[in-house]
Amino acid sequence: MSENPIPNVFSKDATRKPWFSNWSEKWAAMPRQKQWLYMIIIVVAAYLLPVINPPILSTEPGNDFPLALFTMAVYALVAVGLNVVIGYAGLLDLGYIAFFAVGSYTAAMLTSPDSPFFKVPYLWTIPLAVVVAMIVGVILGIPTLRLRGDYLAIVTLGFGEIIRILATLIPAMKGQVGFQNVGRPPGVGADGIPLFANSNGTPWYWLTLTILIIVMLLAGNLERSRVGRSWIAIREDEDAAETMGVPTFKYKVWAFAIGAGVGGMSGALFAGQVGFVNNQKFDVVTSILFVAAVVLGGVGNKVGAVFGGALVAYIPLRFTAIAEFKYLIFGFALVLIMIYRSQGLIPAKHRLLAYGQSAYAKVRAGTQKKPAPAAEKEA
Amino acid sequence: MGAHSEEVPEADETSTPAPIEEIQPLEVEEAVAEAAAPEREIDVAIGDDLIVVKDLTIKFGGLVALDNVSFTIKRGEILGLIGPNGAGKTTCFNAMTGVYKPTSGQILLEGSLLNGMKQHKITRAGLARTFQNIRLFGDMTALENVVVGLDARHKTSVVGALLRLPRHRREERSAIDRGMALLEFVGIAEHAGAQARNLSYGSQRRLEIARALATDPKVLCLDEPAAGFNPAEKEDLMALIRTIRNDGYTVLLIEHDMKLVMGVTDRIVVLEFGKKIADDVPHVIREDPKVVSAYLGEPEDDAA
Amino acid sequence: MISTLLTAVPTDSDWINFDVPTLINTFWSTTFDGLTFGAIYALVALGYTLVYGVLNLINFAHSEVFIMGCYAVFFTLSFLGFGPSAPNLGFGQILLNLLLALLAAIVASAVTAFLVERLAYRPLRKRNAPRLVYLITAIGASFVIQYLIFWQRGPLPEPALTMFLPTPIFEVFGTIIDSQQIIIVVAAVIMMVFVDQFIRRSRTGRGIRAVAQDPDTATLMGVNKEKIIITTFIIGGILAGAAALFYVMKIPSGVQYNGGFILGIKAFAAAVLGGIGNVRGALLGGLLLGLIGNYGQILLGSSQWTDVVAFVVLVLVLLVRPQGILGTSLGRSKA
Questions:
Q1: In angstroms, rounded to a whole number, what is the distance separating the alpha carbons of residues C102 and B22?
Q2: Residue B75 and residue B248: Cα distance in Å, rounded?
Q3: What is the DSSP letter of A94?
Q4: Burial, C153: exposed, middle or buried (Cβ in 10 Å; 0-12, 13-18, 19+)?
Q5: Taking the alpha carbons of C179, C184, C187, C189 in that order, is the dihedral positive or negative?
Q6: Do A12 and C130 touch (CB under 8 A)?
Q7: Distances B129 to A153, B145, B211, C185 between C-alpha atoms, Å
Q8: How many other β-carbons are positioned within 10 Å of the β-carbon of residue A367?
Q9: Domains in chain C: ranges and CATH
Q10: Coil, strand, or helix at residue C263?
Q11: Which of A196, B286, C13, C146 is the most exposed place for a label (fewest CB within 10 A)?
Q12: Neighbouring chains of A at 3+ CB pairs within 8 Å?
């Protein structure tokens, strides 16, 4: 009996040995405690990076390292959010920058003296940005998520552009002039200078890194639940998922909304650090750069997304000579990765069951008995 | 878990075709069968009408695919739906499971109308199906595939999953238990951790059935489940279907292989050109001249 | 709080101003101008529609195929001595120069289309890649070309050059129609009729329709799928090259590394509006979108609004009637 290959959305040839396969096998074989140990070491190292400023990795003297790390963390956060939309649910969103913009403008309009709105302390704008972005995500999602594939991609691109153009055309959004003196979290250093100054990347980096870790933990919770399973089912075969009782539309909108919320949060953080928001940075090209980050890193894998986002931010900052070619380089990288390794650099190894590992272990230990005359013919 | 009384074909004095080989169900451990049994309350008694298809008509533009088809499915039985190619079996199937909207007529499950409901709601109402060309979620393990089916009956919300609230944890644990039980029930428990796309064809077909069973259906609809199997494998599969019925499920089966259909079903509905031409027990169907002529006189047609 | 919220909500006169009187005054000139743009959109739209019909793929890189044609026009005419002011040449000489530029544009666009197909899409076909992967690759290819141009030519548009001074030809409804408009519209329509007939009657055209409907069966019937695909791309390239000439004719300052993007979106919107995969749909959609965009621009007062209009049309069509006005039908005998 011949194999019946079922296509994977991103890679129909799953039998090829991926790179780093030794590493991923070793990782999977490690006991949980050892995994946690490694993860804690990596996290501590990440926090210490701006303080250590390691010589080869550092982006200095070209770019301030703590600020570079902050940018990397923001891109990583964006990538994790977009990974929910593209990687889990399989929805190609080409207008993701719109949610980032919504978050930035929310933070700006609620803290900048240039804005006529009532003001709130900066830290409140972060959850508010999440809420506003999620609402926009739902509003955008409900009419468009009936579409599939190419059409969905184009419509999201269209919406992203519409929002960008509106940011220019609506007078209240202040177009190119923008909003200055966006707020910041409280805290003043010994010398009277605010901790979260625009030029001091380290506290901003630590704040974003913490948020990133929390978001990743939450994403992991979602993965190992019916939500994550529904998303992957939708991505693999939406019609079959619908037939198996998955309310596909509802979960697609949720994916969109959650992705939008994370995007908004990143935008708010970015606005706070830079201190200034105008209509110049929210274009299609950046949306596509975000997609590149997710896809290069490894679709469907949140660690891959972090890696991809950090990489996309890091390369132009570290190698300033080629910084102006970053779009060219990432364009090439996209084409090459799609042709030769479409599952990305760190492919997803889904674990979608909260208590799956113990079940698999039992099976491996052979404590299950087979019912009698079922004779299995294995390929 | 009632055992259905077996039909014993009577030997005739004149030249008779071979008696119908009854397919025996598998031996399954009591505990496994318990764990995999249906959990839902069904108001209809065993032997009474569970699904009623009344005057179902489906027209695609000018083409009449189904013409006033009526039949019932009784609780606890295995009903076969057969007919030559183009008879409308798949159309009928698709109409029942919500892929097509009926042009007229009704499909009733325990008295409530299924017409026009969205597919996932029909599955939740109790009508599960498999596909002729297996459509598993290739990137998931076998156990994960089954749990997706179980999720149809779960109540955890997105927020609940996000924060790992108690209901989420409960449902996840019970999902593992019942999922493994279902895998064992269909005979592929040792592949629980394997990627679905790496399984053999036979295992994939069983997995698909397990996944459908996981939705706790009142009626399990199988669309040509034996397609692509050799005769020995077909027998195994049919034995599994018998086992499923004996565990308390009701089954609707589309199949081409007449020998198998005769051996595993309790009743058969025959369609031809969109109309029902016969509706009876297997050994009567086998000798019905209308049926025989519909199949060009070849009741032993092995379409494999 | 409510009052501050209300100051942000735009009232009618603040940001959206329907300038109806101007539209009425200039209605006919706006219309003819709109048709001219529409003809250009239609030519580019046909490239999108053919590739979508045959490969079920939105060829994101088609906008770059177009802009390469524009650059070819620019370089050819600059080389031939054209500059910002209208050249002092006779009609025949101008025509000759324009034909040379057209040829250069067609070659540049067709070659670009060919390379994109061979280097980006064909390897994916060989690996049986799923659709999402094609789309991402298309975007990557578009990026690569754009930023290669950026690398060589920088961010600013090339200096504008004038091909000829449009001379008024005749007057209709009180509006003057000039030679430029006539050339563009007539040439575009002729080309599209030609392509339409080609698809409907020639052997290759039948092959294109067959592959569009059912690639595997077409192969079984002896159609060389790869050849058909590359032919489709090249036809799209040729049309884009022609569109490039007309575009530079009408908007000389538009030759810029990302000049293809917006036009590409508009052309794609036109293709979808008329019916993706439908040859006549591309013409209808193009002309309609040209009209709507121009009316919108006059009505709303800024050229940025034409971009918004294009996107809004695209989004609305996809939501309300994704098969477009004439329906998708490259495979069927009724175009």
A1: 78
A2: 9
A3: S
A4: middle
A5: negative
A6: yes
A7: 31, 14, 9, 56
A8: 9
A9: 17-164+180-320 (1.10.3470)
A10: helix
A11: C13
A12: B, C
Q: Do A243 and B144 touch (CB under 8 A)?
A: no
Chains that touch B (3 or more CB pairs under 8 A): A
Judged by a CB distance cut-off of 8 A, whether residue B215 touches chain A is: yes
Whole-angstrom distance, CA of residue B231 vs CA of residue B209: 19
Chains C and A touch, using 3 or more CB pairs below 8 Å: yes
Query: pLDDT 10s per residue in chain B (304 long)?
Result: 444 444 444 444 445 566 666 777 777 777 787 778 888 888 888 888 889 999 999 998 888 889 999 999 999 999 999 988 888 888 998 899 888 889 999 999 988 899 888 899 999 999 999 998 899 998 899 999 999 999 999 999 999 999 999 999 999 999 999 999 999 999 898 898 889 999 999 999 999 999 999 999 999 999 999 888 888 888 888 889 999 998 889 999 998 778 788 889 999 999 988 899 989 898 888 888 888 888 765 445 555 4
Judged by DSSP in three states, A374 sits in: coil
Residue where the block lists tokens 């509706």? B279
Chosen from B137, B154, B234 to mutate, greatest number of chain A CBs within 10 A = B137
Q: How do beta strands B63-74 and B49-60 pair?
A: antiparallel
- pLDDT tens string B246-255: 888 999 999 8
Selected residues 69-128 of chain B with any CB under 8 Å from a CB in chain A: 97, 118-120, 123-124, 128
Give residue-wise pLDDT tens across range C218-276: 888 888 888 999 999 999 999 999 999 999 988 888 888 888 988 888 899 899 899 88
Q: How far apart are CA B279 and CA B282, in angstroms?
A: 9
**How far apart (Å, rounded) are the C-alpha atoms in residues C48 and A154?**
13
Tokens read off for A136: 């926009």
Task: Please provide the DSSP assignment of A326-342 as one string.
Answer: HHHHHHHHHHHHHHH-T
Question: Tell me, what amino acid is at B253?
Answer: L
Are B82 and B95 in contact by the 8 Å Cβ rule? The answer is no
Structure tokens at C122: 């064909």
Contacts of A9 in chain C (CB under 8 A): 130, 132
Substitution target from A159, A335, A340 for chain C, most C beta carbons within 10 A: A335
Q: Looking at the complex, report in whole angstroms how far the Cα of residue A268 sits from the nearest Cα belonging to chain B.
A: 22
Q: What angle do CA A127, A129, A130 make, to 5 degrees?
A: 65
Distance of CA C86 to the CA centre of its chain: 26
Q: Do B229 and A1 count as a contact with CB atoms less than 8 A apart?
A: yes
Three-class DSSP category at B38: coil
Measured CA to CA, the distance from residue C202 to residue C213 in angstroms comes to 17
Q: Can you tell me the ipTM of this complex? A: 0.85
How many angstroms separate the CA atoms of B205 and B197, rounded? 11
Per the CB < 8 Å rule, is A352 touching B147?
yes
CA A48/CA A290 separation, integer angstroms:
26
With CA atoms as reference, the chain C residue closest to A109 would be: C8
Per this entry, what is the length of chain A?
379
Domains along chain B?
21-32+41-126+219-240+249-299 (3.40.50.300), 136-216 (no CATH)
Pairwise CA distance, residues C64 & B249, whole Å: 59
Task: Report residue B273 as tokens.
Answer: 């050109």
Which helix H or strand E contains C247, and what residues bound it?
helix C225-250
- Determine how many CB atoms are found less than 10 A away from the CB of residue B17: 13
Residues 6+ apart with CB under 8 A from A16: none
Q: Which residue has the tokens 């075709």?
A: B17
Rounded Cα gap, residues B219 and B250, in angstroms: 5
First vs last C-alpha separation in chain C? 57
Q: How many residues does chain B have?
A: 304
3-state secondary structure of B69: strand
C3: nearest CA partner in chain A? A117
